[in-house]
Amino acid sequence: MRNQSNNPASSSSGTVLLVVLLAMALMSAFVVEFAYGVYVSISAIHNRAESRKASLLARSSLSMGAIIARELKQRWDYRYIGTSVPIPNQFNEEAGEVTLKIEDEMGRLNLNQLDRLTTNNQPGHVFTALVKLCGRIGIPAETAAYIRDWMDPDGLPTNNLRDSEEGAKNAKLWSVNELYSIPHLKPEWIDALIPYVTVISDTTAAINMNSAVKEVLASLVDDSQANELITKRMESPFKDDGALNAFFTNNLNAAKPEWATASSNYFRITASGRVGGINRIIDVVVNTGQNPYRIEYWREY
Questions:
Q1: What's the pLDDT tens digit per position in 45-56?
Q2: Cβ contacts of 218 within 8 Å, gap of 6 or more
Q3: What H or E segment, with its residue span, contains residue 34?
Q4: What is the domain partition of the chain in residue ranges?
Q5: What is the DSSP letter of 6?
Q6: The pTM is what?
């Protein structure tokens, strides 16, 4: 009896079947890979188009925000309590959704004033306030010295602080995000600090007593004075620097410091455009004291 497993015809048929199955598997893989590539490409094009639409929506609301901030200040001499300007901040468009937020930057400590000195050649109010603020929010006090040494031009360490001038920029800051580039500062320290500080090119800009939060106020004056300022502005915001000066004189037994004011020219405008599942955010700081207003900082992400 002949062994069928040694039949050349049967072996040849099996080989052909294997080749056909392998070819079909390769073709299936090619088709799946091609279809997936087309899907990814189409999705990328679609997402790019939606991202562009979201960016345009954010930019359009950004212009609106700058106009609102300027008009509120010029037309009604607008002053307010708190950090966010109370305006309708969400607009539903046919193509998507726009969210707008305006905040006062002059209610924060301006880091570009850290290297200012008093007439007695002592650290100015921003440096001493920043040291105190660091203690209040639970981060090391030397954080203030590291930041000052990073941006001041003298190239000399503060209080013999070790390595504080290593790789320093020795120039004014453009953004608070630059703080993450400073050696020796932990990201969590910077995260805690950023809500209370700003970067403004005008190194003579005062601090708005109507919008500064408790932590900022208490870093500039003592706790009891900060509480009195907050109580007064909750009853009625300071209308101008004259009213602020009268309050300091009558209630705090002191002249109004030169760093205190009752209004603001600098505003942070955050515009968010959303189309489909794509969101684009534009974050700018504008100077409304100039006409036309000047953009101090721009970031889109």
A1: 656 766 776 677
A2: 132, 136, 226
A3: helix 8-76
A4: 52-301
A5: G
A6: 0.76
